Amino acid sequence: MDKPKVVLGVSGGIAAYKACELLRRLTESGHDTRVVPTASALHFVGAPTWAALSGHPVSTEVWSDVHEVPHVRIGQGADLVVVAPATADLLAKAAHGLADDLLTNTLLTARCPVVFAPAMHTEMWEHPATRENVATLRRRGAVVIEPAVGRLTGADSGKGRLPDPDAILAVCRRVLARGPAAPDLAGRHVVVSAGGTREPLDPVRYLGNRSSGRQGYALAATAAARGARVTLVAANTDLPDPAGVDLVRVGTAVQLREAVLKAAADADAVVMAAAVADFRPASYATGKIKKRDGEEPAPVALVRNPDVLAEVSADRARPGQVVVGFAAETDDVLANGRAKLRRKGCDLLVVNEVGESRTFGSALNEAVVLGADGTETAVPHGPKEDLADTVWDLVAARLAGPAGGAPSGAAPAGPPVNTA
């Protein structure tokens, strides 16, 4: 079988050195990858390095090998174009259709999916001009993943760091798997909760559950690959940060409620995949509770935690907002799921059977997605990303319906465009 043809664009930022690792991961995983750097990028990593790692010649100019018309042919023949890092300058040129070198010409001629992985200082990322350019690219169908938070050039830290190459590769794989269709969540803001809350009993003990957060992380990663701006509210997870999401870490059910409600204020969809504790200790011991010889421990009184899913469902932050819940059941799975769907008032409820050796911590899952409209969608045993894509298929269909409305903060939609 022919290898997927990937164009790796590299623009002139210090994070260009990380693109070497992304290139290696792409080639080792079976992608025929050609590097198209900007002239500025070659100040950070030289052309011989790109040529040696990719097995293809490297040029920044449209005047090289003119007989092959590279400024047109490279983009026409690609299955995916990914630009990593994408500087503020490159994003501005792409948004405005400028074509003064081989990479920007390639972006104009590509009719395949395009992924931008921005990297720049926080002030540049937050500048209104950059935000407008990103919004323009997303409206046209490009996937612009959110930069990570961390150490930047010099002593600076903040949002603007290039995500890890493995995380960018995961986005590229998901985009390639979906084929040439335009990202159906482009321009949408989605909120996903993941993991399991922990309710402190004393400084060293807590009430918790077995949730690993894998399903929520799969939902966040697949949504980003489908063009969404993603806020991931993660409770006590120990997983690599997925590329392209805004990560908010929480511990308890009360903290999760606060973070979800804040993020949901302008969200098109809220997916509550986290295992939120139903109860918490009525009192917190400021010192470790001691075991005393000859004495039984005092009973632990519990109080109810807020029902975040029911609250979000009952008080939608904006018209057409789609709310998805999860139901982890151990018996009478579908009957209990249907009852919970009615009780919570959400649009979709993902029902799965759980146990000590089922679902928790596994990379696989199977479920039935119940709809408030009476629909049932079975998802067979398989990767959690497959279940995530099914959920987003159902969410996207509801957002596209009469009640879905325009994407949050989006301008009126124009004709679909598949290129940046």
Automatic annotation (TrEMBL):
**One Gene Ontology cellular component:** phosphopantothenoylcysteine decarboxylase complex
Q: How is the cofactor bound?
A: Binds 1 FMN per subunit.
* The EC number(s) this enzyme carries: 4.1.1.36, 6.3.2.5
Pfam families tied to this protein: DFP, Flavoprotein
Q: Which GO terms describe its molecular function?
A: FMN binding; metal ion binding; phosphopantothenate--cysteine ligase activity; phosphopantothenoylcysteine decarboxylase activity
Ranges of residues in domain Flavoprotein: 5-169
**Single GO biological process annotation from the record:** coenzyme A biosynthetic process
Instruction: Provide the family line.
Output: In the N-terminal section; belongs to the HFCD (homo-oligomeric flavin containing Cys decarboxylase) superfamily. In the C-terminal section; belongs to the PPC synthetase family.
Name used for this protein in its record: Coenzyme A biosynthesis bifunctional protein CoaBC
> What is this protein's gene name?
coaBC
